[in-house]
Amino acid sequence: MIAALLAFAAAVLPAPEAISRANAAIGRGDFNRALVTLEQIDRASPKELLVDAQFLRAEAYLGLGNRDSMRAALLGALRLDPEAVIDARAFGPELTAAFADVRAASTGSLELSTNEAGAAVFVDGAPAGKAPLQMALSAGRHRVRVVADPRRAVDLEAVVRVGEKTPARAEFAPPESLPAQVQARAEPRSKTAPVLLLAGGGAAVVAGAVITASALGYNSKKTQLDIVTAQAQRDAAHTQWNVGVGAIGVGLVGLGAGGFLLWSGDF
Question: Which sign does the torsion angle of CA 238, 241, 243, 245 carry?
Fold first, then answer.
């Protein structure tokens, strides 16, 4: 009998068949049979199937009340694939929660290097310190952002494996290699253009005011002129008024544009 069991356990089964048989045994409550069947799985099977087998192994140990072995099986799944995800509908909330606990407790280390020492590092959106750095992280994929200055940042992803060091490097281009327009924005700008706009706008407003005042002055005069001369002067005054108002308008536009440029620095 013992020899038969040993021979059975020594047989190699394709992963899909071993998983199907083990799943059926667990469904019947025959957890030991499920464990023996899973030992027969072909170790050269695809990683995804080997991870599924580890989850079934953990489920069988949970059914037997052996929580230490259950956790060891879940850790085995993480060692095979740090990004492994358990199917909560298939394995239930208890095993899903246990897997989350194992993941949180199973760490590796991220070793981040860069050519910009002192750059700020953010891991999964949270501040993590200054580069270069080494830090412990839970097993799985993590988002890393390294910021040298407001214009230069490097985004990368790192898959941390249980008990292993995961190297990552943030390589920054030197500032002089940035596009010319980015460099230009960093240089101080001359205030000549907005100052000229303000001065020109002010002069236009003053000139326009003088011209319109002159036109109004004509209308206030009481003179005895012949009809032709009076009409000519009225036409001239009307033209003068239009010119003055136009000059004031242009001047106000210049004042507004110059003031906005000085305020915004967009020049």
Answer: negative
